[in-house]
Amino acid sequence: MDKIANIIDTIINQLGASLVTLKEALSLDEQQIITLKEDLKKSIEENKQLGAYVEQFTDTEVLSSDSGIPIAIKDNINVKGWELTCGSNILKNYIAPYNATVIENLEKNGLCAFGRANMDEFAMGSSTESSCYGKTLNPVDNTKVPGGSSGGSAAAVAAGLAIAALGTDTGGSIRQPAAYCGCVGMKPTYGRVSRYGIAAYSSSLDQCGPITQNVEDAAILYDIISGYDPKDSTSANVEYTPVAPNLDSSKKLTIAVIDNFIEEASDEIKEAMNKSIKILEDAGHSIVHKRMMDTKNILSSYYIVATAEASANLSRYDGIRYGNRAEATNLKETYLNTKTQGFGEEVQKRIMLGSFVLSSGYYDAYYIKAQKVRHLIKDEFDKIFNDSDLILNPVAPTTAPKFGAFASSLEMYLSDIYTISVNLAGLPAISLPVSKDSDGMPIGLQLIANAYDEQTLFDGALSLEQNINYTK
Ligand code: GLN
What we know:
This protein is an alpha/beta fold. It is 41% helix and 13% strand.
């Protein structure tokens, strides 16, 4: 059995290795793109067990929104005319009436939406186990989770079933699955990428970003989806200079390491941190040591803000305006039955938690306090960026765990300690693979930059990627 699993692994790895990068795909002609899409469809069909695409569960054809280069799209991003479910039963059969701005941007640049990537229900999770379709497997070891919530996007890229993908990151959902599967995942500065047409989980934290095979592809895709959008009231109306044409890995940077964060990581992650620090120093960068507030406070602040906003955002799925409506005899029962039958356990838990922290009497004690902590987190980052260009941090305290390893929701939340502060502060960050653990599972680290300084972020990431020489 092990032998067969190994052979399958090797085939998947070879598939990944032979797939063109996004940069290479940009120079393909029309006929070559058609062939590429046919090949991808075939591989997706042959690797059904992976469950990276919704279509692999539903036995439906992988659709293409246009004639361009195919990009896998997380199932919470509207593609006109496609079903959009956010991995939830409550939205099954809902057809997107318009394109999200990121999809319009893809199509304007010769790319297109290609297939729906599986995800944790409403992007709430860290393992892609809570999708209504079923779980996505980690392509490196099928007994392990691919991470989440953009687990489908990361698994598709890592398995060679997508050249690149779009995911969303509210508290790590791009960076963490990329780290677990061994690809690159980037979360832009809050406001850089339009949220128009992306189903909201926590509006003040959500950002869409690329999951790719390498850093340069991430920069290319980031440039394509970014920019001011008057349709999104939180879109940043700031000057935009494309990063990909200006990539420069030779810049010497000051990179901060947060010592008290690293203490909480597994030994193998610590080792990967030390190895990367050494490599960055050898490449001419300076390392400085810093401290930040306890991750416990960051975790509490995040899960209060995120669930509060989620409870408000998800109230629209009431059986009247969107998606499915359950059988009932009156309005109250319609709401109750629709939500009980339509939402999964984790989503219901978060709606209740969010409603609780916003309720009168508890608003000051929890919600306001969480917002104050959020402010302190931003202040701490500001201080670090006074004398540092970037921060190097683990993405998660461990490598990908086995399915079912999280005994409770709380245990799962603990795997988010390194990613969520970035969202609370609205900063850009990129996760890239740097080594493997003793089981051969990828270890990803993240670089974090100051707001709107994506150029330095990508320059630093490219330098790390070139010097670390990670192989699949
Ligand atoms: N794991 C985190 C959560 O469940 C992050 C999810 C995300 O970034 N969408 O909230």
